[in-house]
Amino acid sequence: MTEFKRGTRQFWIPYLFLLPNVLIFTLFVIVPAVQGLAMSFTDWSVFSDASFVGLDNFKELFHDEVFWITFRNTLVYSVLTVCALILVSLMLALLLYQNTIFAQKAFRAIFYIPSLLSMITVGIAWRFILGDEMGIINFIIRSCGGEGVHWLTSGKLAMLSVILVSVWTYAGYYMIIFISGLQTIPIELYEAAYVDGASKWYSFRSITLPLLSPTTLVVSILATINAFKAYELILTMTKGGPGYATKFIVQQVYEVAFMEDRMGYASAMSIVLMLMIGIITLIQFKGSRGEGEHE
Amino acid sequence: MLKETRVMKKALTICLLLCCVLAQILANGASEAPAKKAEEPVTLSVLWFNDGNESEIFTSTMQDYLAAHPNVKIDLQIIAFADYQQKLKMMISGGNPPDVARMATADLTALIDTVLPLEGYADVASLEKQFVPSMLAYAYNKENKLAALPTEATANGMLVNKTAFKNAGVDVDAVSKTWTWDQWAEIMKKVVAANASKGMKYGLAVDFTPHRFSTIMYQYGGHFLNDQQTAMQFDNPGTIACLEWFKKMHDENLIPKSVWLGSENPAELFQAGVVACHIGGSWNVNTYKKNIANFEWGAVQMPKAATRSSVPGGKLIASFKGCAHPQEAVNFMVAFADKDHSSNYDKQTMNISARVDTNIQYASNAADFNVFADELKVTPAFTANEWKNPNLSKVTGYAKEQIVQYLMGNIDVKTCVTNVDKKGAGFFK
Amino acid sequence: MLVVILFATVALIPILWVALSSFKPQSELFSIPMRVFPQRWTLENYAAALLRGSFPIYFRNTVIVSVVSTVITVIINIMAGYALGKYVFPGRNTLFSLMLATLMIPLQVIMIPIFLQLKRFGLLNSLWGIIIPPAATPTGVFLARQYMTTIPDSLIEAARIDGGGEWFVFRKIIIPLSKPIIATIAIFSFMWRWNDYLWPLIVISKNDKQTIQQALAGFVGQLQINWSNLLAMTTITILPIIIVFLAFQNFFMQGISAGAVKG
Lengths: 295, 429, 263
Description:
The complex is a heterotrimer of chains A (295), B (429) and C (263). With 429 residues, chain B is α/β, with parallel strands linked by helices. In chain B, 49% of the residues lie in helices and 13% in strands. Chain B is built from 21 helices and 8 strands. Chain C has 263 residues and is mainly α.
């Protein structure tokens, strides 16, 4: 890590490296974000002027039963999905980052493709697999004499189905990130451990995992953020149903903003969402073992 | 120090380059301000959403108009229906509304304050006489000014698997002329049993929308709002009777749970022969005609409880306050909604006409359309008034969710309707 | 090995369903008993999707946007990631947290402010409007930063001692070592822009500037879905991304830092 003293010309160098990104980012993301979030203190229907209401939106939010249902759903979904995703994608990455498997590139591509599909396609494809009446799985079960499983029409199973499909969709995406991280680990470390008689599990635990921790942190944080923002995939598969079983915060935000025409209230919800994600992200940062620097 | 100077120079160069790019864009942006002279060529921005191929039929229908007005061009942009209202709201609040947009009744109701009243741009008095009242009702804004023109009408109705009825020995065309929902239930049990070996499992699939649900609700004598449409009144005997019936049908497996409790598509279930009846609407005729080959199907009259009813719906075309070319836009709209263009369009898209003076000769399925037209005729007028109420449109989503909660058994029927009324009260103040 | 094949099968089945169904005539899609393979193979869906409307234009737009934005994204993200990962300076953590924080905002809430901002800069209805703003993606910067922290400081010091300025260090040491992450960001960025739906929805209101994803979404109507067109177009749409992905695979070379440490 390099630190330049104030007052030297070099001091400005990191800022210059950052400048293009930060400039664009500030203009087109930060400024609108601040404006959007400021709306949470107003009552704003898209066509009338915003009227300042202070903390009223938040007070209402506190008592909003539907919101807290979506809050709980989002939390459950995110925790389970992120854990599953990290496990699965890491496993896939471990299997596919060295040239030990035939047609490795093809396999990587196969796992990666699901994340390329638009959410509409994914939702629809899985509806055809998991649907009660029209689903392939139930069709097979019935042909064997069984009774169909209510993958998408029973509350708990719907949540499970949604988690599974999310993992299916994104495992390949995070696998790629893990692969690039795994490749920064020098082989000599493994060779040395092997010579010393270490088992595979031991190498994994004491070489791979620690050196992979910056990457693991990225995956964990990105997966968390994306899980909390889950919307389109769930919408196409279950529309938030049955009932409220798979309704998550962003769906509620969207409906309140555009169907009930209450942008201010929706904005307040988003702030709560942000706080929730922020807290969890912070926990993850603190929990990670710092930055995995060599030597 | 030399190296640092080089670094600084390189960094500055990058910055300058970026600034140039930005300036370039700003310059481009500024010079794209639209010219507003009437004689100059005009490009109308048209926003559209598709269900099938309406946009193609639209453009081909209007070819003669464009040929007659060579200075007018259209830039047609197709937006996904799910994002349509969002997109419009964004463009409007950003000061860039499109010149012309196809509007579903629900969207028009939500955006009625932003739509351009036609007074001063067209002969409103004459236009008002040309369209069916139930569709025209959607086109008036709060000041009671006409602000849109109907282009197609739809009716909710029941499509049935006629072959399935035949297999059970029931002449559905005869029976349906007088049947009630109770009679229907008895008949369906026979029909499903007779066709079970062919994969049929259920009697009826109802689209998972409050609009379709309200069809049956109206047939039970229920309603959403009070008589003057000034307050929610979902809690009424007719609605409660309908909800109880609806739940009973689910519990007795005459209606598949996967539609309202999952998101299986009723039209798909119908086409696969899993369900014998489908409460959808006139728009299904086109798709079923294309896709169903292995059984006979058709539209039949819906059962009644207290009364018969359908729900009017359809599409309109509108322009917006603050758009770039209002006069040209209105001219275009009036042309599209006139007798020739409208009937041509409706005929090809297989929709019901919204005009009073057209008698469309459909290429096929005329009998089915007669059934739908018939249903519309017996539909009470207040149904349109309910569905065009902007405050109701904000509550229907919540109502749907409460109905699902009731179907799942999580709440009882009284809680369901009072919850909806409570929510609605917030919007009707 | 077996495990991989098992998972791969699970991964593939839905995709295969989509691809195979795109060759079925629409009437076959909802028949029971379900069939995997089309009874009657047909290309009518592809013909309809390709010939209808302005498919070539949408394709061209999407390609331009994806390629140009990816180039910009890689450059500015790597630079920013390097700064955040390898330098200590005031405001570093605040900036990083701010970037991450914005990732947490659902885009729906800030759609309208973004629209107004883009309008102010004249970026509406311009491909630049979907190339530039999303290029500063926090995800890319985050990935780059994490990767940068794994590059040994000793290499950087060595290069400095050898008389290189900061830019020299960046060009000659960091960039070659960053090939895996450059490839990763490039693949992701291409995919994000190729699949981007919300940004074009906000920015583009003119037919000739639309992208493929907008066209795809247009097939989902109010009352029914245009399956045949949707499935065929979906299959076409994922091909370029797969090609880009396979092309960049070569950058995922094993043991690249090993060579650097030795040397």
